[in-house]
Amino acid sequence: MCNCKKFDVPGVEFSRLDSGLEIISVNNKYASAKLTTNGAHIFEFAPAGEKNLLWVSKKAYMEPGKPIRGGVPVCWPWFGSGPKEGWPGHGFVRRETWEVAEISQLPSEATRVVLKLDSDMKQFEMSEFPFTVFMIFTIGKELEMSLVMLNKGDKPVTIGCALHTYFAVSDIRKIAVSGLDKSPYLDFAAHAVSKEGNYQSGDIQITSEIDSVYYPASGATEIVDPGWGRIITVEKSGSDSTVVWNPWIEKATTMADYAPEEYTEMICVECANAKCDPRILLPGVPHQITQKIGLK
Ligand code: BG6
After folding, report:
1. Is the CB of residue 296 less than 8 Å from the CB of residue 146?
2. Distant-in-sequence, close-in-space partners of 208: CB < 8 Å, separation ≥ 6
3. Residue 2 pLDDT > 70, yes or no?
4. What digits encode the pLDDT tens for the residues 227-241?
5. What is the per-residue pLDDT across 59-79, written as a single tens digit (0 to 9) for each?
6. Atom 14 (ligand 1) nearest CA
7. Least confident window among 48-52, 118-122, 139-143, 250-254
8. C-alpha to C-alpha distances, 76 to 6, 128, 147, 165, 188, nearest whole angstrom
């Protein structure tokens, strides 16, 4: 059955791009949002009267089977390069079509959208255990996103993951990311002197490529953007690692789905279980990471 008939909720519309990408648009009294079932990927969240908090590249592939450069790619069951030769970076679920499990209006009139991906629905070449994962979006004054993961097998498995959020900023060179002062971090930027042994001092200001995994870092961060006169708040739970990424000029030229000049427009602040922060999923015991974003 068409999802639009099954989930007839005020302010929710289904549409399809020519590429086949299924879009769910949400408009309620708090915000507007756009998601796609491809990768359980939200790519627009604009509180009423405000600009989109999320950034999307003008060169992003908006087609089934490809991750979108922007919004919030869901990385699972690994973070970074694949565990085996030829397996895709950041896991495979951001390339899969998820099922719409639920759409509802909450008593507060916020909208809840639940997308589900189940290993029973498809043969996953790269899944080495049976699983169900859910993405739960609550679109209200703030956007709350939870990735819930369940190991349906009979052996523990180790996973990595991230809600790889791309935030829109007025100018990367003029913003600051606060909340990570004194945090140790691994530095994966090309110019890094040493990957290990780094400590953040004060707010993060970005003047070159940044690809840092802060750990332990379980607290909230803020993106202070004087150019647009706004502060984006980023709260999280279930995650002790925060990734901050901007490719800057040189790396930008190597990405087919990213226009070189776009490095000034975005910053990724990711709620993760990355690198030093993997999680063991015991059979039948769910694990959840949640990121909540909004304006101060
Ligand atoms: C970040 C990583 O999370 O994602 C970077 O720390 C990586 O190393 C970036 O380049 C983008 O990854 P991808 O696979 O979406 O191009």
Report:
1. no
2. 189, 191, 248
3. no
4. 999 999 999 999 999
5. 999 999 999 999 999 999 999
6. 89
7. 118-122
8. 28, 13, 9, 14, 20
Q: Whose CA is nearest to atom 6 of ligand 1?
A: 211
Q: Which amino acid is at 5?
A: K
Taking alpha carbons only, the member of 5, 159, 21 closest to residue 13 is 5
- Supply angle C-alpha 37, 272, 292, rounded to 5: 65
Task: Say how many Å lie between the CA of residue 242 and the centre of ligand 1.
Answer: 13
How far does residue 80's CA lie from ligand 1's centre (Å)? 7
- Global pTM? 0.97
Report how far residue 59's alpha carbon sits from residue 257's, in angstroms, rounded to the nearest whole number: 5
| Residue 91 · residue 75 · CB < 8 Å | yes
Q: Which two three-digit tokens encode residue 177?
A: 């990311």
Residue to mutate, 43, 72, 164, ligand 1, most ligand atoms under 8 Å from C-beta: 164
245 Cα to the center of ligand 1, angstroms: 7
